[in-house]
Amino acid sequence: MSNPLLSVRDLHTTFDTDDGTVRAVDGVSFDVDAGETVCLVGESGSGKTVACESITKLIPTPPGEIAAGEVRFDGEDLTSLPDKQLTEYRGGRIGHVFQNPQGALDPVYTVGDQLVEAIRLHRDVPKSAARERAHSLLDRVGIGDVEDRIDDYPHQFSGGMKQRVVVAMALACDPDLLIADEPTTALDVTIQAQVLRLLDELQDERGMAMLFVTHDLGVVAEIADRVVVMYAGKVMETGDVYQVFENPSHPYTKALLECLPGRGRALETIGGTLPDPTDPPDGCRFHPRCPHAVPACEDGDQPAFEDVGGSHQASCVLYGADYDEPELAEANDD
Amino acid sequence: MTDDPLLAVRDLKKHYPVRSGLLRRVTGQVKAVDGISFEVREGETVGLVGESGCGKSTTATSVLRLEEPTAGDVYFEGDDITAYDDDEQKRFRRRAQMVFQDPNSAFDPRMTVGESVAEPLAIHGLRDDDRQAEIVSDILERVGLSADDADRYPHEFSGGQKQRIALARALILNPDLLVADEPVSALDVSVQAEILSLLDDLQSELGLSMLLISHDLGVVREVCDRVGVMYLGEMVEVAPTEELFANPQHPYTEALLASIPEPDPRSRGEAVELTGDVPDPSNPPSGCSFHTRCPRVVPPEDFEFPDGSFRQVLDFRLAAENGDVDTDALAGDTALREEFGLPSSLPDPDAESVLAAAISDAASGDVEAAADRLADAFPTVCERTDPELVDTEAGHPAACHLHDAASEHAPPELTNPQD
Amino acid sequence: MPSTEQQSPLFTRIDWRDQSASLLDVRPRTAGLVLALAAVAVTFVYNHQVATTALVGTWDLRRMDWLLFVACILLVRYGVVPLVANWERSSGTVREFLRRPAGLLSLAWILGFAVLGLVGPELIGMPRVDFYADYQPPVFTTSHVTNIANVECVGPVTDAGCHGTWQYPLGTTSTGENVVNIVMYGAHIALKLSITAAMIMVVVATAVGTTAGYFGGWVDDVLMRYVDFQQTIPAIVVYIIVATMYLGKGLFTLALVFGLLNWGGIARLVRSETLERRESGYVRAARSAGASDLHVLRRHIIPNSAATVITAATRQIPLLILAQVLLAYLNLSDVRLRSLGEILNRALPPLGVGWWVVASITVFLVGTVLAFNVFGDTARDVLDPKEVA
Ligand code: SF4
Ligand code: SF4
Question: Taking every annotated instance into account, which residue ranges of this chain make up the domain ABC transmembrane type-1 (chain C) (predicted)?
Fold first, then answer.
């Protein structure tokens, strides 16, 4: 299979605000193969959420706009599709799970009704069949005693259980791709572990691809096959999960891993603040905060991707032909 | 100054009445905090960790008497703070300060940062504007901002900067005790790191004592000297930080530690998965409140259960008691066993015959009988009695029957964890 | 900024024994408020005990005026003083407000309305009956009404009829009152009524809303049940009963009854905001720093409800003005008041003839109602502080 299931190319998403145009996603490319889990990781303001919402145009337009780029899903360019056709993808072949399960469920309908509706929106099946399917989905995501609970309202479920219901809804039409935006961030760790396990199992079972957005590197390490590290609207580094964690190459990725608390060593900090999203710096977006910055980092565009081994790439001049990575090699020795 | 710890909490309880009906009659109690004790010594940082609903934030506010505790004592330098008169209370307010979780709602949007930071000064009677400005600019610089920032408004700052300002406000009265309730959980990791190291610096320079409330064990590990782990309003384990991480004595602590996803893809899938949700604090389980989820729950003495299989049996029983066994969908014994992860047969024939009987009860639709049968045959000490917080062999206290001195159920693996 | 570059290990030390808060430590604006209120009280007593007729010369104060005085003092203390004292801060808000065309227009109209209402009647006096100048059309228009017997045209008469003149720019009524004077006098009454009734509403609503929201529990229950109850009482009916049986018809009764019965909705809004703010970080921080409830209410809760209260109050004002006109139209107001309603009553068919009387009054009323509504909307947009970045 040579064509990836999802291929995002040079995506630009902008937002008009009172303070100017925010280039939330500014030339981002990545692929998701069938059956694969790709993690978009970054801090707030990195554009990771906007990037994944741009795929099915869930961003509010206006003020948002997909200014340029291409999103190919199974060969079809989603950015050029009319809204009507897009809605068939949303919740159909592409499922969504959001951070806050509270907001994803309508408080005035029972979870069963919401699931039935989600199914019938895309499948022309009678109510009874849809309900049967809802039943088996809820059972699959680990809602005990579905018979009793299917007619409960969302508020009767705990946070973790609600997120399971949301997962069930996302799976309603057997999606090929599940987009999960910080699905476990609002949950307690022990519940997070349960939901992550569930997602992992579901993905294996169904062979679906998953695009997982998170700020938590621990979660990334837990589930990702490949990792896309974003900063200030740009991709900094991409690679296989082992490559990225064991040989982080981009100075931003390194810094991010260094400042994780509680690993029993001195805490490093990045220093400085995120650039102004309406007026990002020239050159490498990270250069005002980068400890390894050289003059070449300050002009032009974001540095091109350089191979740092296999499919592992970093957008940093130090890996370019002009440099021998001396600084970075040194940094790696610390 | 005496040898008393700066803050000593003894058997603190905070119960909230649950009211219902037209007349708002009290129909129950949420035991948010149910008898916890700990102390914070001078210059020490103590962490309280636990999941949401474990009562850690309520502990923080009750300790500062921002909420009136239901029972128990809180001593500040040996004096009972619940007995303070108004003057002493005001003095205590100067000496114990609090920082809250959400930096975005921490400031009155109408006030400049300078005014907000100076507010505690005014509350305590220092109203001289020049003096205030001087102190504010000093402190803003100390938390890594500039004196000019005093004239700007909160919305002009990022989350991390706001949390610095919140720290400035909390420290402006020169307190001896700082209570920080999830001070970094609303921030990005890189910003978290900055705030944590600022906290660390300030704390060591000022000799502050700190009580840090967090759900994040990583954060706790970073700054705390000692940690208390809370579950459903109770303290289940207290230990020096490194010891807690290296040698947890309570099964809950163990599970909590194991649930933290490690930023290392090679260690994936090693989480000890806790089954089920945190129980409702208005109706906590009897005995050890963790017994509904505990992977090490103590099996009855008269039977043999291979590793962990008693957990599944108990899960099945609890599900049966709650009416969560769907006998229509799960027709037949094997389907039931599969659903609850029960082995096809238990090695102990006595235990197996009880289980088999219970399962056929359930399969024939009489779920209640199944539950009763299991409850009668397989009593567990964890359900019967509430374990005390007692010293363990590891040297620090934990509240778990596995450590009961008289108990023969302490398996060797807890003090010597198997993998 | 690395946090390690700290210089001295200790912050500024403060000797708290020197800083005991003194009760005499009051701000000038508080003192001013107390003085002004005291002055009103003293004059009131003087007026009722000693000089029972006119206070100075022919200036005879009536109960409505006393109420108005108090309302104005409160308006100055809680509206004008903060605006001016924090000019640095408020100027931004004001500029933001004026940048919006709708805001600018509505403010201009309201200011015009206020100035006219304040000085108009003093400068050009009350509308006077003048049977030599009845039925005069407005300037630039003509009318045939002068064909009615006994009506003389003040301006030139042509084939098109009687031409209006600058003497009566908006024409006159069937009894020869100048419509300009009528509108001004109408504005005067409306202004008095809106200031007093709005002030009553604002004060009561803020007090009740914050108390209920902040203290919660049974206090909240009792107050909000009362609001539920009160909202079922139609103010107009109460006015009719109270006016005919006790206090007499007139502005005073109107302001009092409408002011005291229409604050429920505002109080509800204030309560829900208070509930939210009570849990906010800054309130909790202030409380943990030892602030009293009074401090929290005064410094944080009440000022932050200002936007809501102002918006809600400006929405009530047009209703009040219309209610007053309606009551006068139905002859349920004080007969001595040459109110717009009463004039309308006379100007509308079957009695009325001149269209211009109705037109002027309608334009004035519609403009004012619109202006207040637009003002309220704009104020809400502008005042809503950015709680999140
Ligand atoms: S390109 Fe330059 S600034 Fe950017 S990460 Fe590499 S070294 Fe740092
Ligand atoms: S007492 Fe029993 S249930 Fe509680 S933690 Fe210990 S082993 Fe688990």
Answer: 191-376
